[in-house]
Backbone:
């Protein structure tokens, strides 16, 4: 709530100051700033989840076609004390998964078809335990709200590293994107993935399964080309869903939106358990 209110207040203040400098009228500028701040807060709090789901391009999981997914989530959820999340599947060859939502009772778990096809049952169980750990720790709320507050400016940051007219237009948003990237880094726990790795392993009590799953993800790739809005939700995925930028131009800006430690580091940490 502090994150949403603070960001909305800053946006509202900027709008009020700009209106006052260009048009004049302090009362009108103040009223406009308050309205804009309220709109930003409302959209971030209630609109981030639906926005992320639309950007994913995911489809509801089929209880018959994806019976193994439903069975594993049901069993793990019962052991972890986590309500059954809504399950979705993204058509993508990359091996990846994510969770989002505003609470454990309103959570969504998404997996790629590549993950379902390439992982064994025990490896898939380990990945799902990792994702359910995010739900149990309630860190999905901040990560979901961050989609609307900061993640939507990840696309201009990535577009600005390219070439052509689109890169020139995106470059105009570089200062705003940089602030959004810093906001994303500050709002998310930098160790959230490692913590979920550890919690997931404690749930399954078999570290080699998650190690094997992460090794397959590292070897096969975790990229999820889910559409033009995919940079906005990149921080939600278990592994980095975006390929490296085409050029080194403004690469520092895209790194601001990278919130995942390398898979190799996570694998080594798990091997020490």
Residues:
């Amino acid at each position: 709530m502090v994150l949403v209110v603070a960001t909305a207040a800053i946006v509202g203040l900027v709008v009020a100051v700009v209106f006052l400098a260009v048009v004049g009228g302090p009362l009108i500028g103040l009223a406009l700033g308050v309205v804009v701040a309220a709109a930003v807060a409302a959209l971030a709090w209630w609109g981030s989840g639906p926005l992320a789901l639309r950007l994913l391009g995911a489809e509801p999981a089929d209880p018959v076609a994806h019976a193994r997914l439903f069975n594993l989530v049901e069993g793990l959820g019962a052991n972890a004390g986590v309500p059954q999340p809504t399950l979705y599947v993204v058509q993508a060859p990359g091996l990846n998964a994510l969770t989002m939502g505003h609470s454990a009772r309103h959570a969504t778990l998404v997996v790629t078809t590549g993950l379902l096809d390439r992982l064994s049952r025990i490896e898939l169980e380990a990945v799902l335990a990792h994702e359910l750990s995010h739900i149990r720790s309630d860190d999905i709320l901040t990560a979901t709200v961050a989609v609307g507050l900061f993640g939507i400016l990840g696309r201009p940051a990535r577009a600005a590293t390219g070439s052509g007219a689109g890169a020139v237009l995106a470059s105009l948003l570089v200062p705003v994107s940089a602030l959004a990237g810093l906001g994303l880094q500050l709002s998310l726990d930098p160790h959230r993935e490692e913590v979920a790795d550890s919690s997931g392993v404690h749930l399954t009590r078999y570290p080699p399964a998650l190690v094997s799953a992460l090794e397959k993800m590292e070897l096969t790739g975790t990229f999820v080309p889910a559409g033009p809005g995919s940079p906005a939700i990149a921080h939600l995925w278990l592994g980095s869903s975006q390929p490296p930028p085409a050029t080194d131009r403004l690469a520092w800006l895209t790194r601001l939106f990278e919130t995942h430690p390398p898979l190799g580091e996570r694998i080594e940490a798990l091997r020490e358990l």
About this structure: Residues 136 and 228 are 30 Å apart (CA to CA). Residues 26-56 form the longest helix (31 residues). The chain has a mean pLDDT of 84. The longest strand covers residues 107-112.
